[in-house]
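Title: Request for sanity check on C-X-C chemokine receptor type 2 prediction

Description:
We are preparing a figure and want to confirm that the structure record we downloaded matches what your pipeline produces today. Could someone re-run it with the sequence below and paste the raw structure tokens into this thread? We only need the token string, no images.
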Amino acid sequence: MEYSIMGDFNFENYSFEDFFGNYTYNTDLPSILQDSAPCRPDTLDLNKYVVVVIYLLVFLLSLLGNSLVMLVVLYSKIGRSVTDVYLLNLAIADMLFALTLPIWAISKVKGWIYSTILCKMVSLLKEVNFYSSILLLACISVDRYLAIVHATRTLTQKRHWVKFICLGIWALSLILSLPIFVFRKAFYPPNSSPVCYEDIGANTTKWRMVMRVLPQTFGFLLPLLVMLFCYGFTLRTLFQAHMGQKHRAMRVIFAVVLVFLLCWLPYNLVLVADTFMRLGVIKETCERRNDIGRALDATEILGFLHSCLNPLIYAFIGQKFRHGLLKIMAIHGLVSKEFLAKDGRPSFVGSSSGNTSTTF
């Protein structure tokens, strides 16, 4: 789930005008001349084969974990809540992103050996994953805020609203990701590995700022402010009312949000620093440009890890998720019913908003 709509900064995704400075060119292919390059990029210290191994491990863990999450949520029809529907969509988003990781792993070693269409498609999936994830988390925060702070049944009893909200989130994520789909292409420079990058013509600086500022505002900053507002008041209500049981039921949700921020906030902060540098707010130097490039590569890997972490959160913190998974395994004879009885079924934490307790 990469924030590439505002700039992809992996070597294979990095546009050559970013590597070699701003210059004009008359064709679609930027001229890469030895004497015209004011800055030379440093080679990333991270071993590319280590990165490939990380990508493949994340792919396998994400595929397995999110498949189990989808299975448990879809199986738990009776106890399924609004939050569970959002978490189901979150698992789908992570699954779609995970499917692109083997392709990016191969491109780390061989460069972009695929077509422009595949370049556009896998880049689009990464963007949709990021935006849908943070928008879904924002919707979960609003649902928890309404359920606990205002004790309202408005969203939770009208289940068809949730379906439309999820469809709206996917549509908005797709719209925010369209620029990367339009501008991405496979590029085969001479004397260099092929790359998948944004070809945005001569107006490089202007378009890069548009492709960064607008999506980062509507796809990251505003949803983050919504989450901070909703969870701030939710926590205050829980502590003031001494609602310990409900507070325990919120641990999974808070952990999911916290892990998302830990994985993606560093990347976005580095991206903001890069934007400020290109706008002239902070002085641009070759050393600073290379430092930011290395930081973007490292923090991007951290962001990629996010797609496999949510199932681990559910498994270690979500008692109801564990029980739901064991129940499915018992039905299919993978564990004994005696073992399931020993696990015990945790009671759902009710609330004045109706069916808002979560399977996790």
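Thanks, this matches our download. The mean pLDDT is 76.
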